[in-house]
Design goal:
The chain is mainly beta. It has one domain. The chain has helices at residues 105-110, 116-119; strands at residues 2-3, 16-17, 28-37, 57-68, 70-71, 75-76, 82-103, 129-131, 134-156, 159-164. The longest helix has 6 residues, at 105-110. It is rod-shaped and about 85 Å long.
Length: 165
Amino acid sequence: MENNNSSAKFALPTSIIVTTKSGTNTIHGSLFETNRNSGIGVARQRQDNFTKAPYLNRNEFGGSVGGPVFLPKVYNGHNRTFFFFSYEGLRLRQPSTQQSAVPDAASRQQAPASMRPYLNAFPVANGARLGAGLAQFNASYSNPSSLDASSVWSTSSSGMYCTGG
């Protein structure tokens, strides 16, 4: 069963995919790859003060393989013992934005010489002046993360064995 009838106008579209595997006497498998990248396509209108959206890259991939257990000259599991292995990987660069107040250019220039190193430790303002010697600093960055999941399943005429990792 596959279901993906959600519209992009909803905040959290949903996809449901259900797949069943059964033992056969031939090896079967599948592969998948999904990539969402902010470099491709048009993003929705931004709701903040940033002119350029932070970089997003979501890469999800994996596969599965299953079939009879067969160890040459040791064991022939045709019609008796089957295995199934699956793997899924995720590589994600999650975008984030941040706004903060930093000393403006005039404050940096008018400060005493002993204070300038401390004021210059702040990033240079790239946004609107806020008054009181402050200006806005806008930043965007990506938080990288990854996830790897796998499972192994085996069944025979005498029972089922399952492991995961």
